[in-house]
Amino acid sequence: MFHRTAAGRRLAYERLEGQGPGIVFLHGFKSDMGGTKAVDLEAWCRAQGRAMLRFDLSGHGSSEGRVEEFGVGDWLEDARDVIDALAPRRQVLVGSSLGGWLALLLARERPERWAGLVTIAAAPDFTARMQAEFTDADHEALAREGRITRPSEYGEDYVFSRRLFDQGAENSVFGQPLALPMPVRFLQGTADADVPIEDALRLLSHAEGPDIRLMLVKDADHRFSGPGELRMIREAVTELAG
User: Fold this and answer.
1) d(Cα 242, Cα 237) in Å, to the nearest integer?
2) CA distance 187 to 33
3) Dist. CA 145–CA 127, nearest whole Å
4) One digit per residue, pLDDT tens: the chain, 242 residues?
5) Nearest-angstrom CA–CA distance, 131 and 138
6) Residues designated as active site
7) Is residue 184 a contact partner of residue 122, using CB atoms and an 8 Å limit?
8) Is-contact 101 125, C-beta < 8 A?
9) Are 126 and 117 in contact (CB under 8 A)?
10) For residue 54, which of 21, 81, 14, 82 has the smallest C-alpha distance?
């Protein structure tokens, strides 16, 4: 199924009807709604009779466009639009990596909208961390070509556009206070090569709220998709969804 946003972008989605609070899953960079975590969570929601929404951000999966044509602000707009249109009740946000960044932004801007927040290897402001490590060649490539590339362990090379870095700076999590009055669970693997533990600890320190917990899993990597990790995601969602 497809949803046309107010900005005219055509987004693929899957929606499961059921009781609330519903679950909204936000996937990571160069991932999609068909990833292991999203599919496992949908199977759990189906068994529980719980509503769920998962969708592909612009440039990902079956949605229109190429990844390098969009940035964090565009994807935030996508998420806001499709959730308001297709999941109007209170929801539990579940965000993986880039999806965790988007979930944090959504939680900050409309806290009353969410029954809870679960992030998995959240990667807020990862563009700023990348830029801090740029070489002269990276700066030259971004200025000359409007993009840089990085090898990926998950398939073809990642392409990072100037639009991504510009919009990342405009949508910083760490650049503003982060009030999270809903219950929050941050899940993080100690063997994550993409999001270091230090970033997870920084996020825990930066966030303000009455019920925020960071749960570290020894030897779990960025995928966070082993049987034990999937069970932990389900348990966190169960706790917050009630």
Assistant:
1) 8
2) 19
3) 17
4) 999 999 999 999 999 999 989 999 999 999 999 999 999 999 999 999 999 999 999 999 999 999 999 999 999 999 999 999 999 999 999 999 999 999 999 999 999 999 999 999 999 999 999 999 999 999 999 999 999 998 877 667 888 999 999 999 999 999 999 999 999 999 999 999 999 999 999 999 999 999 999 999 999 999 999 999 999 999 999 999 98
5) 9
6) 97, 192, 222
7) no
8) yes
9) no
10) 14
Q: How far apart are CA 89 and CA 132, in angstroms?
A: 40
Q: Look up residue 52 and give its two tokens.
A: 């769920």
